[in-house]
Amino acid sequence: MFRTAKAAALAFGVSVMAMGSARAVEIEYWQYVFDSRVKAMDQLIAKFEAANPGITVKHTTFPYADYQTRVVAAKAAGQGPDVVQLFYGWLDNFVTGELIQPLDPAVFPHAEIEGEFFPIVEAMKRGEDYYGLPTAVRSLALFYNNDLLEKAGVEPPANLEEFLKVAEATTQRDGSGNILSAGVTLDMAGQDHHWWREVLIRQNGGEPYDAEGNVAYDSEAGAAALKFYTDLQTEQKVGLLGFMDEGQAAFRAGLAAMTIDGTFRLGAFAANPFAWGVVELPADAEGARSNYSSYFANAIGATARGEELEAAQKFLAYIASPEAMGIWLETVGELPARRAVALTEENLNDPIRAPFLKGLEYAHTTRFYDEAAQRQTAIDMVNRVLLQNQPVAEAVAEAARAEQAIIDAARK
Amino acid sequence: MSAGLEASGRLIRPGRILAWTLLFIGGLIMATPLLYMFSTSLKTSGQVYDLRLIPTDPTLKNYVEVLKDGRFLRWFLNSLLIATAVTLSNLIFDSLVGYTLAKFRFRGRAFVFIAILSTLMIPTEMLVIPWYLMSSQFGWLDSYWGIMFPGMMSAFGAFLMKQFFETVPDDFLEAARVDGLGEFAIWWRIAMPMVTPALSALAIFSFLGNWTAFFWPLIVTTSRDLYTLPVGISSFSAESSIRWEMIMTGAALGTIPTLALFLVLQRYIVRGVMLAGLKG
Amino acid sequence: MTPERAAEGLVPEAKSLRLWDRLGIKTKQAVWAWIFLALPIAFYVGIRFYPTAQAFWLSLTDWNLLRPPNFVGLRNYAKMFADPVFWKVFQNTFLYLILGTPISLVLAFFIAWNLDRVRFMHGFIRALYFLPFLTTAAAMGWVWRWFYQPLPIGAINGFLSWLGLAQQPFLRSTTQALPAVLVPAIWAGLGFQVIIFLAGLRAIPQTYFEAARIDGLGEWAILRKITLPLLKPTTVFLVVFSSIGFLRIFDQVYNMTTNDPGGPLNATKPLVLMIYQTAFSSYQMGYAAAQTVVLFTILLIVSLIQLYVMREKT
């Protein structure tokens, strides 16, 4: 069909060109605002449009805070996007809200998805259907400020014991003990709640959730993990919740020696005016490691039909292609979601990418029902300990009850 | 005043100097946040931690960076357009309502007046959910009209204008009627010019209120191009990865227009606020 | 419609002239009144009264944007009254009111009372107090958030540390956060209240004061016996106006706590932020509507109580 339009244009000249372009399909792509992601997607769209002259893609972005609401509101108004980005933890909301449609197995064969993508793509499957495909996956690692480490005469830590030593050595305090430069950032609203949930609890011999997906961290392991975390502020005094408002801001300002963050931060940290590096998240005393991996997937909007559906499928296939993943890696820093594109010799030898790729091998992916609400329970838990001196075990128990209530409500 | 001085003699003078000094210091404290905002907007990211008020090496670099992609200009123009349109609408309709309720005698007048006045008791927050529903049904979400429609008339304005129209002598209006002027023309050409101080007070209030409005524009706008300045500043700040010098620059850009306007129109603004406050 | 109809009326030769002429002056007035009021009445009915009724109705439904609303009776209210977060928010909302209104009014009155007697640099000092009123709360929330940061970046903590005092957590404390959010709200509204008080003070005829001075009354006695009673209408207006403002506080909280909205541990969350989150973050529109009904009721009761208490002698 697009070919006919093109042929007609060639044959009849400019006036028919106008008609041809009037027949072109416009699809809408939505994602949230994050500078490097927007830039990367603009590049992908330009390439896609050049390869598919009949299709134009309108790129719309919203602030992260109310991104979900925008998608829901648009659905309610009957004008949703054709291709939409979603966090894997929102999938249940999006499926039950009928915001997206399952991928057609004829266009996206399951065997290909399961064979070529990292296994965490499984989180996009409900029943027999896949609902979306990621361009990139993310994992966590420990970023360190090399200038501060060198000044303190320490090496990047490999395990938690060294981690505490490095934090202590790099913390700078004034005469009254106020932190002027932190050893490590504490930012539960950032990535720290994943670190606690999927890494510290496991390293203390526990499990965050049981096989049915119920909360299982109301245990000694959960409490020990929380104690380790809150002790960073109360005992070791190497960090302060809210220092410089956000952990990433403190690190970027050169006022924190270490921070735990994800691949997506690589772009923002590129301009840091100091030498920095990345290592795997610290192992425990036995050398056991864990990590948290996650991703944003792209899905096809429930309202896409006919021509638009076809165009949306083409676009989704393109942004999940090896080429797109390469561009995403260069621009955003997030790891390609296909094994073959990610695990290249070059990437595995890259000092920045390698720690994240290694982390991916032993990473866990939390099954979120309501990611924002579940994160809030972890934020509140830490606040109760740090601001209200609630005993650690009680704080964990209360968080477990609150999070289980969210899970129960979502399952109803 | 001279009587006061004589009555209390020496006791008052040192008291007055103390009062003046305290007032002055209080005023400086009031201005400090704004001064710091401007000062930080002139610093580089490395100097933000230097808490001295006067930047050692002031630069306009932040302003260039914030302004270069044009979005602040766009938000500024959006706010200007919306605040102006809503203000004009308020000037016309609020005074029409106020005039009618003040100058016409008809059955149901008291009822209409009380009904309109009673809407002052309904908080905007209660209406936003129905407005949101209405906007999504009529396709007003994410449009200028969607931002503007709830504020096109205000009960406060109608009440204020009614108070002022009541001071206009009926004789003037009757004389105009005898001269054969239509009712519409009597309102527009005779009555309106007699309440210009009230109109300017209403204009100032309405403009300022809409210029700084945040809650409803935050809800009804989705695309960045339609943000008003407050919503734009808020989202710009939240997405800035906490770069304080940039946040302060954005805040300063949002503050400069009203401050500039105030410096030019200080007299009228203060008088307008006094008028509205006293009669309202 | 109104302008066109009204414009026709300007022309005496209009078609309906004969019928029109037969109408009495009173009827003519009534017709014109309703013509003038037609569009405004449509507006107030369609954009104020109907949505109010709809908000009450929605509060009895489970509407969530995705599915059409179902009637659920008082279930939203039962859920709300059983939710400890709601009661925390309820308490916060009143704290904003109970702290904000008296503090700002007392400050504003004393500033205005002194400013009224100051001639030297009167305009300049008045401008200093008034400037914050012209700022945008959304932008100033961020400025104040920066002020409250811990060392080494926060200006207030920098000042405290320079004085040799201990650092304060401000927004990172469950007890200090609410007052810390309240300060910029008071700061921004103070100038308006000062101006209104100034206007009220000027409206008191000077002869009252002169007579009192001749009678030998001291400054305090004049303040208590003459100034304050005569200022009552102004005070009533400001109490009602600022109470409503503090009960509806949102912009400052929203912008000062974006990482943990209304936090830490809901210490700063006012009712309007809860409504916003319920409606526009978790899109439980019916539940949010029930919360707005509570807000409406609070505003109504508080305003009525205030008008009643301050009614005498005005």
Give an overview in words.
The complex is a heterotrimer of chains A (412), B (280) and C (314). Chain A is of the alpha/beta class and 412 residues long. Chain A folds into 2 domains: 26-138 and 294-349, Periplasmic binding protein-like II (D-Maltodextrin-Binding Protein, domain 2); 140-292 and 369-411, Periplasmic binding protein-like II (D-Maltodextrin-Binding Protein, domain 2). Chain A contains 19 helices and 17 strands. With 280 residues, chain B is mainly α. Chain B has 2 domains: 2-59, no CATH class; 64-279, MetI-like fold (Orthogonal Bundle), CATH 1.10.3720.10. Chain B has 14 helices and no strands. The model of chain B is unreliable at 1-11 (pLDDT under 50). Chain C is mainly alpha-helical. Chain C folds into 2 domains: 2-58, no CATH class; 77-309, MetI-like (MetI-like fold, Orthogonal Bundle). The radius of gyration of chain C is 26 Å and the shape is flat. At the B-C interface, helix 1, helix 2, helix 4, helix 5 and helix 6 of B face helix 1, helix 3, helix 5, helix 6 and helix 7 of C.
Offer a concise description of the structure.
The complex is a heterotrimer of chains A (412), B (280) and C (314). With 412 residues, chain A is an alpha/beta fold.
Keywords:
heterotrimer, A: 412 residues, D-Maltodextrin-Binding Protein, domain 2, 5-stranded mixed β-sheet, globular, C: 314 residues, MetI-like fold, 2 domains, disordered N terminus
Topology:
The complex is a heterotrimer of chains A (412), B (280) and C (314).
Chain A: H1 2-12, H2 14-23, E1 25-32, H3 35-51, E2 55-62, H4 67-76, E3 83-87, H5 91-96, E4 100-101, H6 110-116, E5 125-126, E6 129-130, E7 133-134, E8 136-137, E9 140-145, H7 146-152, H8 160-170, E10 172-173, E11 179-184, H9 188-203, H10 220-234, H11 247-252, E12 256-262, H12 266-269, E13 276-279, E14 291-292, E15 296-301, H13 306-319, H14 322-331, E16 335-336, H15 339-342, H16 345-349, H17 353-361, E17 363-364, H18 371-388, H19 392-411
Parallel strand pairs in A: 1-2, 1-3, 11-12, 14-17
Antiparallel strand pairs in A: 3-15, 4-15, 5-6, 7-15, 8-16, 9-12, 9-13, 10-11
Helix pairs in contact in A: 1-2, 3-14, 9-10, 10-19, 18-19
Chain B: H1 2-8, H2 12-41, H3 61-68, H4 71-103, H5 109-118, H6 124-138, H7 144-148, H8 155-165, H9 170-178, H10 183-191, H11 196-212, H12 215-220, H13 229-238, H14 244-279
Chain C: H1 2-10, H2 17-22, H3 25-58, H4 75-81, H5 84-117, H6 122-130, H7 137-147, H8 155-162, H9 177-202, H10 206-214, H11 219-230, H12 232-247, H13 251-256, H14 271-280, H15 285-309
Helix pairs in contact in C: 3-15, 5-9, 5-12, 6-9, 7-9, 9-12, 12-15, 14-15
